[in-house]
């Protein structure tokens, strides 16, 4: 009898070992019982963002407040370069990641299998335009420079072509922009239509350090310099871009993402600059994930 009980105990303990192994088989706590990945746990309830102060960073902080299902989430703000390198590592290992993404940028050219998460609360707005702003008085002081900047317009694909090439070749964006102007002379000529030679007039453009704005500013610089203007591009924080156009410290900027991304800076300064309208249409910002993540909406993420 004793022996029998012992035997049963032995069998039970073997069973227990198997059961434990089966349940705890995965040391990845983000895999649920049904084998489905809990992406929110897998990414540690963290969105990988870019520089603090960027419009998209401000929007993401709003998203964390407005979406109930993002309760207990954080956004890691550091730099665009750091975010891109985390994205690269995640994609290489097919791991989940949630980033702040936008177009125009080379991220979708390099990693085409990514998607924007639906944003039912429209925290990230819809289609954005990139607008040119001029300081008050530029039209009177230098109507030709004003007209050139006003006539500058191009497409998402143009900007992304420059950004992607700079990324792929390691060449400085400024040089790629100069080359683009040489290769697209017909486009550039349209911006100069009816504009008199600048006769050495100095023009200062405020830009941000993001590749998108480095591309547009350096394209316009190269194009205006073909027409006798002396153009300086000054890279500053995005808040300072708006302030410096409003104060008249610089002549213009091509870098205003509207109506949402830079709305805060726009509204704070809007009586003190002239909005020349879009130089690019079809821009977008939002939360972006790799296609292999089986979710479609920000609301598919789970609170912590
Ligand atoms: N961006 C790119 C900027 C504008 C240019 C989307 C990262 C932002 O302020 O969010």
Tell me what you see in this structure:
With 304 residues, the protein is α/β, with parallel strands linked by helices. It has 13 helices and 9 strands. It has helices at residues 2-23, 39-42, 55-66, 80-92, 107-110, 138-141, 143-151, 156-169, 173-183, 185-191, 211-225, 238-247, 263-269, and strands spanning 46-48, 74-76, 99-103, 114-116, 128-135, 202-207, 230-235, 252-258, 273-290. The strands form 2 sheets. Strands 3, 4, 5, 6, 7, 8 and 9 form a 7-stranded mixed sheet that branches. Helix 3 (55-66) links the parallel strand 1 and strand 2. The protein is elongated. The structure holds 1,1-dimethyl-prolinium (PBE).
Q: What's the SSE blueprint?
A:
Blueprint: H1 2-23, H2 39-42, E1 46-48, H3 55-66, E2 74-76, H4 80-92, E3 99-103, H5 107-110, E4 114-116, E5 128-135, H6 138-141, H7 143-151, H8 156-169, H9 173-183, H10 185-191, E6 202-207, H11 211-225, E7 230-235, H12 238-247, E8 252-258, H13 263-269, E9 273-290
Parallel strand pairs: 1-2, 6-7, 6-8
Antiparallel strand pairs: 3-9, 4-9, 5-8, 5-9
Helix pairs in contact: 8-9, 8-11, 9-11
The structure holds 1,1-dimethyl-prolinium (PBE).
Separation, N- and C-terminal Cα atoms:
52 Å
Radius of gyration: 26 Å
The helix count comes to 13
Strand percent estimate? 15-25%
DSSP, total strands: 9
Oligomer: single chain
Q: How much helix, percentage-wise, in residues? A: 40-55%
Uncertain runs with pLDDT below 50, 5 residues or more?
1-6, 14-29
Ligand kinds: 1,1-dimethyl-prolinium
The string of secondary-structure elements, in order, is HHEHEHEHEEHHHHHEHEHEHE
Overall geometry comes to elongated
């Amino acid at each position: 009898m004793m022996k029998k009980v012992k035997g049963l105990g032995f069998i039970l303990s073997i069973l227990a070992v198997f059961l434990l192994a089966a349940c705890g088989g995965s040391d990845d706590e983000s895999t649920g019982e049904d084998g489905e990945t809990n992406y929110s746990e897998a990414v540690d309830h963290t969105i990988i963002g870019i520089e603090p102060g960027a419009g998209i960073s401000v929007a993401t902080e709003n998203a964390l407040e407005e979406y109930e299902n993002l309760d207990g989430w954080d956004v890691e703000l550091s730099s665009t370069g750091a975010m891109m390198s985390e994205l690269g590592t995640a994609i290489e290992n097919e791991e989940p990641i949630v980033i702040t993404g936008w177009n125009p940028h080379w991220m979708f050219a390099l990693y085409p299998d990514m998607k924007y998460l639906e944003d039912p609360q429209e925290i990230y707005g819809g289609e954005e335009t990139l607008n040119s702003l001029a300081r008050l008085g530029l039209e009177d002081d230098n109507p030709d420079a004003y007209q050139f900047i006003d006539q500058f317009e191009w497409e998402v694909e143009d900007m992304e072509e420059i950004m992607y090439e700079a990324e792929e070749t390691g060449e400085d964006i400024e040089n790629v922009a100069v080359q683009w102007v040489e290769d697209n002379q017909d486009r550039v000529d349209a911006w100069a239509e009816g504009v008199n030679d600048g006769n050495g007039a100095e023009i200062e453009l405020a830009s941000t350090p993001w590749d998108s704005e480095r591309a547009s500013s350096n394209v316009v610089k190269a194009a205006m310099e073909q027409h006798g203007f002396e153009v300086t591009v000054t890279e500053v924080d995005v808040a300072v871009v708006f302030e410096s156009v409003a104060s008249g410290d610089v002549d213009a900027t091509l870098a205003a993402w509207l109506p949402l991304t830079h709305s805060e800076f726009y509204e704070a300064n809007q009586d003190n600059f002239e909005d020349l309208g879009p130089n690019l249409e079809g821009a977008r910002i939002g939360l972006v994930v790799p296609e292999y993540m089986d979710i479609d909406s920000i609301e598919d993420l789970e609170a912590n």
